[in-house]
Design a protein that fits this description.
With 172 residues, the protein is an all-alpha fold. The chain contains five helices and no strands. The protein is elongated.
Length: 172
Amino acid sequence: MADVQIDILKTSIDRAKAEIFSSSFFALMGLLFILTSIGFWQLGKTGTAKAFIIPLLLAGGLLVVLGVGLIISNQLRISSFATAFSADGQAFLEMESARAEKTINGYNSAVYKVIPLIIAVSAVLLMVFRTPIWQAGMISVIAMMAVILLLDTNANTRMQDYKDRLVQAEQQ
């Protein structure tokens, strides 16, 4: 039983570290959006190129904030795991299991319903509004949502695997 409990602590820490690694890609992609915005600002000659400056800057800023926020929250979570686990291993297991279930439910609604809907609406708006600023804005939204969809799909799979491990530990 003790080996299973310690394995759960290690599994929890490993999952949080994987989330930190994954979250760094949000920040990295955000920086790429910002660099692209700066490139359009410095080198863009056409109205369409100049229209991309603000939307890419905003999308990049949001991705950086999202990535850094997730990194910080997971680092704080890792530092609290050992204390919470040593205080009451069973309560830790139940708390993590409930958190994992809540997170999976959030992914199921946000990642698999809301984000594709935002992409679809943006694609329709891209076809309807033919001005450069609208097109740049909608393309930026689609690109940002695609990044979030890609990274959160992987995070959802990791969270589901984590929850399965927690359920196995609860049954033992």
